[in-house]
Amino acid sequence: MDTDLGQPVLGFGRIPDALQPPEGTQALLFDCDGTLVDTLALYKSCWTVVFGARGFTLTEEWFETWRGHTMEPFLLAALPDLTPDELLVVEREGLDMFFERAHELEAFEHIVDIARQFHGRIPIAVVSGGPRDAVERTLEATGLDELFDLVVTNSDVENGKPAPDVYLLAMERLGVDAAHCIAYEDSGSGLASAVAAGIAHVRDVRTI
After folding, report:
1. Residue 104 CB contacts under 8 Å (≥ 6 apart), including other chains
2. Hey, what domains does the chain have and what are their CATH numbers?
3. pLDDT (tens digit, 9 = 90+) per residue, 39-87?
4. Are the C-beta atoms of residues 174 and 123 closer than 8 Å to each other?
5. In this structure, are strands 181-185 and 201-204 parallel, antiparallel, or unpaired?
6. Are 41 and 96 spatial neighbours (Cβ–Cβ below 8 Å)?
């Protein structure tokens, strides 16, 4: 693909050098929560209420450790005695609370601008460890749902992040090689997932 990825498109801010896709990039792969959209404060607020009603106090340290994991290990880390049926009830309660407040969400414009600049030039995907209904609601609430060619979530694979499955599936569906992709992430589990998938260029947006 003969695309000069180093040149910004007029109308958008310059991409920080540390986030610039290298020459020859075939696809841009973005995590959603905490990377494209500032969902973490809202999720933390919702899960604080849901867990607190069941006797678990969510702390900053705990949340930083477990955010980015898929739903089942996240819930069991807080409430290890939940039965499979109870897991579904707690998940639904937390997500329903999140959906009711989705209008509060805001995009990280400096990250979204990367997707905007290369939209229509190379494939762009959301690769999330979250459930599909939550990811889609997040993208819709922030007006980003039309920006991406593909959305792959934990709902599409057997093993969520930090396993590589979501990234492997996204690259398979896009028909691109991991050696020529760049992934943008904001959590340890997400970074581990991208690295395990063999993606050559992995960026931690928290460092920008």
Report:
1. 42
2. 17-38+106-207 (3.40.50.1000), 40-103 (1.10.150)
3. 999 999 999 999 999 999 999 999 989 987 888 999 999 999 999 999 9
4. yes
5. parallel
6. no
